[in-house]
Amino acid sequence: MDLNTIEEGKGDGKDEKSNVGEGGLGSKVKGVGSISNKDVFFRADKIDLKSLDIQLEKHLSRVWSRNLEQKPKEEWEIDLSKLDIRTVIARGTYGTVYKGVYDGQDVAVKLLDWGEDGIATTAETAALRTSFQQEVAVWHKLDHPNVTKFVGASMGTSNLKVPSKNPSGNHDSFPSRACCVIVEYLPGGTLKHFLIRNRRKKLAFKIVIQLALDLSRGLSYLHSKKIVHRDVKTENMLLDAHRTLKIADFGVARVEAQNPKDMTGETGTLGYMAPEVLDGKPYNRRCDVYSFGICLWEIYCCDMPYPNLSFVEVSSAVVRQSLRPEIPRCCPSSLANIMRKCWDGNAEKRPEMDEVVKLLEAIDTSKGGGMIPEDQANGCFCFAPARGP
């Protein structure tokens, strides 16, 4: 067959469209007739290449637009290329916390990975990822000096390089299903570790009240935003270089339901959990107030609540026998009264956190009153024998 057998296209081709990209080169090209038959040749000088380029560009633009529509970028998503992970701070069940640098700022990077061990089911992994998104959704909107500053997060870290466990010092790629959340780096560590370091010499009363005020102000702010932390404990509080306390770890935080019956289930850490939570009953933000009362006792005493009881014993005694930590005799009544009000068995009788802030602000620290008397190097001897972690 020679070129003379080609059927010339009729008309100006204005109503004909190219299918480039949709199904290969289309059935018609401007200036050329049908090319559906594989044996048919066509003349290159009759093809409008400029028109084809325009059509191809439009098609690719539509494809890119669809991809963007399918996966919109969240306002909290970070640019992983700006993140440099340095050293491990802590390891947990589902992930590791690293110290790193993001866009020139020192940060803590919480890397969470689920399912790599082959134990977690698909449903469990999905639930954990949902919990992570919940944490991010709560955290990125918060702005308060006593709440850890959120920097950003990522739902997939396939391009992220993390320090390897092997001695060669090379970096490994983290699994693509992993998630990471980035927050400001606080060099003071957790409040829990700070209290452990001071369990023998105790804290000056001014420091006790300062830490208590930081925590109460942070919780009051969260409650004003209708957020219930649900896991208030000294391990979830961090200290900066100036010993300012900041609330962290919003893994189980949630927006408070209008109907308390919508908030049930054991969520939190034993020893800090309110009786209604332990008992599986409906609860509200006042479960955080109860936990604050336990933390306040812990800050004052630099001791562990219920150090000699098992989990089962604590759970039963808190609910059935109104068990609470023993308040030392040397504790000022103004502070002891706040503890008792906060951990009242009746949630409705507990004060709101903004009220707790006012009560703490009213305490006079100029004359001491803590476990360390002004004129005495040795601490209070209310506890015998010495206890602590």
From TrEMBL:
Biased composition (Basic and acidic residues): 7-19
Gene Ontology MF annotations: ATP binding; protein serine/threonine kinase activity; protein tyrosine kinase activity
EC number, as in UniProt: 2.7.11.1
Catalytic activity: L-threonyl-[protein] + ATP = O-phospho-L-threonyl-[protein] + ADP + H(+); L-seryl-[protein] + ATP = O-phospho-L-seryl-[protein] + ADP + H(+)
UniProt entry tagged with the keyword Phosphoprotein: yes
Alphabetically ordered keywords of this record: ATP-binding, Cytoplasm, Kinase, Nucleotide-binding, Phosphoprotein, Serine/threonine-protein kinase, Transferase, Tyrosine-protein kinase
Record-given protein name: non-specific serine/threonine protein kinase
Species assigned in the record: Macleaya cordata (Five-seeded plume-poppy)
